[in-house]
Structure formats: structure tokens, C-alpha cells
Amino acid sequence: MGVLTHYRDRGYLRLWLAQALSTVGSLASMVALPLVVLGELHSASAVGLTTFVEAAAAVAVVPAAGLVIDRLGPRPVMVVADLARAAVSGLLVWMVWAHRLGPAALFGTAAVTSALGVVFAAASTAAFRQVVPPDRLTAALSVNQARFAVASIVGPLVGAACYAWSPPLPFLLDTVSFLVSAACVAPLRLARESRPDRIRPGEAVAGWRFLWTAPLPRYLVSAAVVGNFVFGGVVLVLLAVFQDQGRGAQTGVVLAVGALANLAGSALTGPAVRRVPARTLVLGVTVVWAAAVLSLPVALGDVAWVCALIGICGLGGPPAQTVTQTTLLRVTPPALTGRVQLVYQVVPQVVPALGPLVGAFLLDRLPAEVVVLGFGLLLAGFAAFGARPRRCPVNG
Fold first, then answer.
1. 325-336, pLDDT tens digit by residue?
2. Tally of CB atoms within 10 A around 104
3. Among 98, 212, 220, 246, which residue's Cβ finds the most Cβ atoms within 10 Å?
4. 246: three-class secondary structure by DSSP
5. pTM of the predicted model as reported, rounded to 2 decimal places
6. What's the fold here for domain 206-387?
7. How far apart are CA 137 and CA 322, in angstroms?
8. Contact 306, 372 (CB under 8 A)
9. Start-end ranges of CATH 1.20.1250.20 in the chain?
């Protein structure tokens, strides 16, 4: 059915708007927070430590929060997460306005916001099983990819513009977006899976166990982890190279091309996911990524070629993400949806933070071309592993 079919369903529309508002607001404040930290604390290391705190907080909530989603249902979890984030973001507005943002307040608000953000993302994706019929799941998730691609372009621009107007403004926008998101989610009618009265040993890690023992989901999530790690490192290398060449501003051009390619890729997602088996699609995308990254070392001096290669990589992201998300929602037992989604939301998103660390470590010891080649070989090795008939999971 057409995309517009989804917008006739009030439950889907409310969930879609809640996710869109939450994403735009979060991306706007994500751009503004480092600027505020540099302006208030005058410390670049505080920016890096904030990123680490956010990643650590996201990982820390996985065992308990996934179980809460599965036992209480996604709607109350989303509402509480939105209201709590609105309160924290509102506090941040006051601290920035009053110049009261100290290290403890910075790290505390960053940790809470990050933890609640991944909880909301996992709960909202789990809710899709109830608001979208199985035969329209792929199309709905394709629309979500387009929404995220647009938000990835609009959110940072809005955040930067709001910060230039007034430093507290991006966080005020974030606060309002969370409140409106909570208002969208609260009326949703979502069922809660039947559950035992007592928590059995091992329930908190059931999501990890499912992903580890199910061959196809394990392969798809592993591909997301490896891809995000590689591109996190590659972006750091590109930034360093362009900075050394006196062309630091062109890094923004490359990232903008990648974002536009993601938007274009979301238009290809529906047909690709419907026609190509899950494992085959992800394997093909990984092969293309490996070829593009392996070509980057000879193109580092030419921004146009770098943009073209990054654009090719960006086209494959939305189909790979959509087929992974669709597969997880279809094969995960309903009682484990929250826990599995939380693992999927956290692990592939936290791992990219390690990519720049590895890239920076290697750049201090090796030429940039060699470092990029190493990242490309990692992708190629994973693609070769996935192509081995005896080792790869069955097609999905």
C-alpha cells in the first residue's frame, strides 16, 4: 500500500509525530551542547568527557530498561521518558541562561538525557508492532528512515541557528518537543503482553541472549556495529586530513553530502527491502561500503571524489537499517521486543564512539591513507565472512 495509507491511522500518526519531534529537538540540542560547554567551561576535554558519559549512561540502562518496557508496555515508558527529558532539558535552559552550568550539572544532565533517549527510541520502535500491520511494516519503517534523514539535516541547522540567536534557545526547543511528544503518545492504545508476576533469573539479559543465538539477527546487528565503527573512524580521519590541508570547512560539505545521500537512500528502501532477502541486502551494502572506503586513500586530496564515495556509502545506510529493523520486529518474540530493541538502539550507536578513538590513536602513528585502508579492510573482512556459505546465517 502507499505511504499515505499510514497517515490515515491516528495511532501511527501520533507515534510518527512523537518520534519526529523528539529527534529534531534532540539533534538541535546535540549541536548546541558542545558550543555551550566550550563557552561556559572553556574546556575541549569536557566535550569529549560528555560524549563518554552519554555513551556509558546508554549502556548502563540496557538490562533494566528493556525489561521495564516489556513488562509495563511501551506507552507509559515513552510518556515518562518524554516528561523526564522535558524536566531535565528545562533545567538545562535555566542553567545556561543563568550561567550556572558546572561540570557536575553538565555530566548529570547529559547522562540522564542520553539514557532516557535510548529508552524512548526502543519503546517507540516496540510500539510499531501494535500500530502498524505486519504487511505494512517495511513501508512504515522506510518512512521513518526518510524522517530521520530529514531531521538529521534540519535538526543541526535549527540548533546552530537557535544557539546563535540565544544560547538557551535550542534547549528550550528541546523541552517543548518532549512535552508535545508526550502529548502525542499519551492517548495511544497499546496492549501489554502477558507476563509472570515474578522476574525470573536471566530476564534482564534475554535481549542479548536472543540476538546472540538467532543467526540472522546476530548477523544484521553485527553488520550495523561494524559499519558504524568504521564510519565513525573514517569521519575523524577526514576531519584531520582536511584540517591539515587548511580545508576544515569542507568536512561539513562531506557530511552534508552523506546526509543528503541518506535521504535519497530512504527513497530506495521500500523496493530494495521488498525484493532482496535481508542477509543478501546487508551483505551487498557491506561490499559496496568496503569498496568505497578502500577507494578513499587515493581520493583524500580531492574533495569531489571524497563526497562521491561518502555519498555512495550514504545511499546504502537506510535500506540496511530498515531491513534490520523490520527483521528484528518480525522475528523477535513479542515478550522480548523491548529488550531486543534496547540492545539494538544502544550497541550500534555507542560503538561509533570507539571508531574516532581508534582512528585518532592510529593517526598518531600511521599515515592517514593507511588508517583509512585499515578501516576498509575491516569492512571487506566482515563482508567476506558474511559471504562464506558455511559461516553465514540463512537468508532472511
1. 888 888 888 888
2. 8
3. 220
4. coil
5. 0.75
6. Growth Hormone; Chain: A; (1.20.1250)
7. 10
8. no
9. 3-189, 206-387
- Residue closest to 145 by CA, chosen among 265, 24, 22, 21: 265
Give the Cα separation of 26 and 265 in Å (integer): 23
Read off the DSSP letter of residue 352. Answer: G
* Cα separation, 290 vs 313, whole angstroms: 9
Overall average pLDDT of the 319-324 stretch = 88
pLDDT at residue 84, rounded to an integer: 93
| Residue of 46, 179, 60 lying closest to 115 (CA atoms) | 60
Per-residue pLDDT for 90 more than 80? Answer: yes
Q: What is the DSSP string of 39-105?
A: HHH--HHHHHHHHHHHHHHHHHTHHHHHHHHHHH-HHHHHHHHHHHHHHHHHHHHHHHHTT---HHH
Query: Residues 147-163: what's their mean pLDDT?
Result: 76
Count of Cβ atoms closer than 10 Å to residue 391 Cβ: 11
More confident residue, 58 or 381: 381
CA–CA separation, 319 and 201 (whole Å): 37
Q: Are 27 and 152 in contact (CB under 8 A)?
A: yes
> Cα–Cα distance between 386 and 227 in angstroms, integer?
13
Q: What is the DSSP letter of 249?
A: T
Which 3 state secondary structure label does DSSP give 189? Answer: coil
Burial of 49 (0-12, 13-18, 19+ CB in 10 A): middle
| CATH architecture assigned to 3-189 | Up-down Bundle (1.20)
Is residue 144 over pLDDT 90?
no
C-alpha pair distances (Å), 356 with each of 97, 240, 340, 346, 376: 32, 11, 26, 17, 15
CB atoms within 10 A of CB 274: 12
What is the distance between the alpha carbons of residues 391 and 396, in angstroms, rounded to a whole number? 15
Q: At what angle do helices 303-331 and 215-244 cross, to 10 degrees?
A: 160
Whether 392 and 287 have beta carbons less than 8 Å apart is answered as: no
* Calpha distance 67→164 (Å, rounded): 41
The closest alpha carbon to 27, from 230, 255, 331, belongs to: 255
For residue 315, which amino acid is it?
L
Q: Residue 341 in contact with residue 286, Cβ under 8 Å? A: no
Quickly state the pLDDT bin for 376 (edges 50, 70, 90): very high
